[in-house]
Amino acid sequence: MNIKGMICFSLCLLLAPSVWATGKVYKCKNAQGSVSYQDIPCSQPNDAVSNWDAKKGNAGKLVLDVGDGGQFFVDAKVNGQSMLFKIDSSASFVTLPYAMGMTAQLTCQDGSSNTGTTGCATTINTLNFGPFTLSGVKAMLSPSASQPVLGINVLRQFNVTPEGSRMTISAK
């Protein structure tokens, strides 16, 4: 581990007790787009990217604050690759931009390298978001998609409760 990594690790250890004491982790962004994780709410409501309960008793619960344009977003990993997903209950399937799918080692199920306008079906080996991990998730790769979308094929596996400017996703 290099010196920069050691400093970051040390700071995380120092800050961790305060986060665990409050029970919430807030992911915020500033005007320059830099992201920070903190134990207090973001200074401006539109700075919030997401937040989640960190206490052990709430391990099966994810609380998201509304983001830009009144949409909800969640950080996720597709086969280990980090991505920011828009939550869209009107989308039938998880959808990924074709290039991001290739980065996550996804392939078209028909064996083609479809880069046309129609996209193709694929299966995500592992999808992680908040405290949840799913395996064998059906998804679409779309050359016209601009952002990953978490669709109803995943959302229907959870209790999803919109509460004003917050959305809670919990295990069924």
General description of the model:
The chain has 3 helices and 12 strands. Helix content is 17%, strand content 42%. It is globular, with a radius of gyration of 17 Å. By secondary structure, the chain is α+β, with helices and mostly antiparallel strands. The protein has 2 domains: 59 residues, no CATH class; 113 residues, Cathepsin D, subunit A, domain 1 (Beta Barrel).
DSSP helix fraction: 10-25%
CATH architecture of the largest domain: Beta Barrel
Q: How are the strands of the largest sheet arranged?
A: 7-9-8-5-6-10
Report the uncertain regions: 1-23, 52-58
Alpha carbon gyration radius:
17 Å
The N- to C-terminal Cα distance equals 40 Å
Outline the biggest β-sheet: 6 strands, mixed
CATH topology of the largest domain: Cathepsin D, subunit A, domain 1
Present the secondary structure layout.
Blueprint: H1 3-22, E1 24-29, E2 35-38, E3 48-53, E4 61-65, E5 73-78, E6 81-87, E7 94-97, H2 98-103, E8 120-129, E9 132-142, E10 149-150, H3 152-155, E11 158-163, E12 166-171
Output the keywords.
172 residues; single chain; alpha+beta; globular; Cathepsin D, subunit A, domain 1
Short précis:
With 172 residues, the protein is an alpha+beta fold. It contains 3 helices and 12 strands.
